[in-house]
Write a structure and sequence with these properties.
about 160 residues, alpha+beta, Metal Binding Protein, Guanine Nucleotide Exchange Factor, Chain A, three-stranded antiparallel beta sheet, 3 helices, about 15% helix, globular
Length: about 160
């Protein structure tokens, strides 16, 4: 019975700790190491960053701060600061979102099937906190053929000198 109750609330990011206590938790990731309360996230993220990372939203093409960024550095998760993508792997895809050929470590991102909006895609999540980052497509220029199409709202650039 408890499992049925928990499964019912997973889509709402609510977890039953006891019969008297409910806790909000990001269920996007199976392996999230860092957890934040809804209040913490809403306080420090913009409404767009929150919508993208916590509700699998998507910013409009060509609207994000990093889609045309040329600076060298490391792109980190806006939620937990995990190092995700190097500027060395960033390329111009013409999509209007920052695109990368690969993450800095294959274990830092988690992929899962996304069937929302009447299509099947591969969603990309931060394994450290479960934040939605974007999607990966098999049409990239690198040796793997992957194009990680990532929302600027889910990233922060740590520039190198």
């Amino acid at each position: 019975m408890l499992n049925l109750f928990i499964n019912h609330f997973r889509s709402s990011n609510i977890f039953l700790v006891s019969w008297k206590t409910l806790v909000f938790f990001n269920y996007h990731s199976k392996v999230a190491n860092k957890q934040f309360t809804e209040e913490e996230l809403k306080e420090r993220l913009t409404s767009e960053q929150y919508e993208v990372t916590q509700n699998a939203g998507t910013e409009r093409a060509f609207s994000g701060v990093y889609w045309n960024e040329k600076a060298d550095g490391m792109y980190c998760c806006i939620v937990c600061d995990a190092k995700l993508f190097s500027s060395d792997t960033k390329f111009e895809s013409g999509s209007g979102w920052p695109s990368f050929t690969e993450p800095v470590d294959e274990k830092i991102v988690e992929s899962k099937t996304d069937t929302s909006h009447g299509m099947t895609r591969t969603e990309v999540l931060c394994t450290e906190c479960g934040a939605h980052l974007g999607h990966v497509f098999p049409d990239g220029p690198g040796s793997t053929g992957d194009r990680f199409c990532i929302n600027s709202a889910s990233l922060k650039l740590e520039e190198t000198d």
